[in-house]
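Feature request disguised as a bug: please show the residue count (164) next to Cyclin C-terminal domain-containing protein in the output. Example input:
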Amino acid sequence: MLLAIFVSTAQAGPWISLAKFLLELAMLEPEIQHGFPHAYLAAGALAAALRVCDAPEKKRQELVKDVMIWPAQYSSEELLVSCEEELLQLWIRCKDEMVEFHHVFRFLEAKYSYHSRFEVAYLSPAGALKALREEREPEDFRDFDLDWMRCGITGSLRQCDPVA
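Example output, currently without the count:
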């Protein structure tokens, strides 16, 4: 049902291509791949793609509505947003070569740099991650400078948060 909604939209190509890119990226990080139910992982990738591509808010709301039918231990929307955030963080860490498998990421990035895949690898996740965090965080912390959090640790996704 959800895919039918997106396929009917002319702009759906880049959204779907970017979601596939993020899903393939998630396969490189076991903590993400196995840390979320697969339905939420797919929905999180699509939510991140919609955010990065500045899709209409209505599309995101349709996605959230569809995800609500899947049972989750926690709030369905919170789980979706957490997955979306993890995927965007991972993408940034890969771009900045802050993961052990950054050399593998380069092949994935090359694959999604082709015109036939809407060149989604050239997009930047930083603005989308910042917007997501601004939605989640209290206003008191929005102007907090997080540059000090940048670090060069390789390994687990949760060791370092590279986005300010």
